[in-house]
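Allow me, if you will, to draw on your knowledge of protein folds for a short while. I have a record of one protein: its chain in single-letter code and its fold written as discrete structure tokens. I should value your view on which stretches of the chain appear to form regular backbone elements. Thank you for your consideration; the sequence and its tokens are set out here:
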Amino acid sequence: MLRSRPRLREPGAGRSPEGPAPPPLRVRTGMDLAEVTRVEDLMSSQPELRERVFTSRELAYCYRRKRAGEHLAARWAAKEAVLKSLGTGMGRGMEWTDIEVVNDRAGRPQVRLYGEVEAVATSLGMHHIDLSLSHSGGLAVAHAVMVCLPGTPGPAFEPEPSADPAAAPRPDRTHTAEGDDHYEA
């Protein structure tokens, strides 16, 4: 005797009475790892760099902490992670201080964008950036997740023209925020 499969959901379930569901949100991510001693060495050997990279609010927060270097390195990594989520790296007209890491009342890190960085994020349809920071064993890591509204264009990607069109297909070429080219199969 053949059994019919039980129905998992009613016909039409999950559909909006107004029509099809809106397109899903787009998510862009960026991640960076920073060596605490490297950031500490840079800040002590080039004190003018402090004000070029960190806002006064970030510096005040970090230097109130017992291990300021870990907090500075985490914010350094956060700025890099945000730039990677934008897909731009440090672009023309951007300043390090256009990205500010602040903490909410519960201590959770938040990102504030200004200037050209904010303009690029807005052009991508940025709705929100979620940020996670951690430091251990002399390293600081940051992960940025940018949620973009549907219907906004992403960055244009144009593959490089092949010198020999008859050549075998190449792996896809991707570009990192640091300017390195990576090839993936």
Observations:
- The two ends are 49 Å apart (CA to CA).
- The first helix runs from residue 36 to 45.
